[in-house]
């Protein structure tokens, strides 16, 4: 089961857990109110998993690939790791399914505080278009993940500030509606 918590303010190694003391856990319901959708799937059988097939059909995830993030597998590894960790948003949902390994997705809450979401094998997450977020490996330094898209993939990340994009405005409206 996925675990999430509010991050401390430390600028130390981004791969460390960065839990506040005492730990301030974040529930799946709190993530849902931010528009973050979490699912648990059978990563050992992702090629034939009927649940994944149904999710892809229902959500119209027509395109997918698999990426391995490890220093021996990803060209320009150090540069990519830094890029993934820059705070950004996308104009489309970001869908990631962890097939092996582990890492962290960090998202901003309604008060602009960082929440760290620990992802491991079997975890699928959907981050809504317009949410500020970032990704990093954890201390294991390895993840193999499926990337899913509606239609052709769009890889463009817009670093903060990107508040003028319609996707960001729509996301902020969603947060406002969730609050009331």
Automatic annotation (TrEMBL):
Listed EC numbers: 1.13.11.54
Cofactor(s) needed: Fe(2+); Ni(2+)
Annotated localization: Cell membrane; Nucleus
GO biological process, one term: L-methionine salvage from methylthioadenosine
GO cellular component: nucleus; plasma membrane
Listed PANTHER family: ACIREDUCTONE DIOXYGENASE
Annotated protein name in UniProt: acireductone dioxygenase (Fe(2+)-requiring)
